[in-house]
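Please check this one:

***
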Amino acid sequence: MAEVTTDHDQIRKWAEKHGGKPAAVDRTHKGGDVGIIRIMFPDAPNSEHGHLVEISWDEFFEEFEDRQLALLHEPDSMFSKIVGRDTAEKRAHGDHKAAR
């Protein structure tokens, strides 16, 4: 069952447990702008991270907070999706079609 969190320590521990690293989409990562963030899993089979650039956890979480994001993830798998906190709130109240 998927869980939603905004806790930085929980996100980092979950990602590192599965070989995940903080990343940004390369075409959006310009100068001082981190751009669109993701968690990449470079050692995963069929991982499509060719357009991602690794960033620091500090950069990741600064963007994460600036954009008011949350992580939807399954604790025992690599499934994850970064969503807006408003979307996470809607999902918590039963709207499973909410997306962002």
About this structure: Residues 8-17 form the longest helix (10 residues). The two ends are 19 Å apart (CA to CA). Residues 3-92 form one domain.
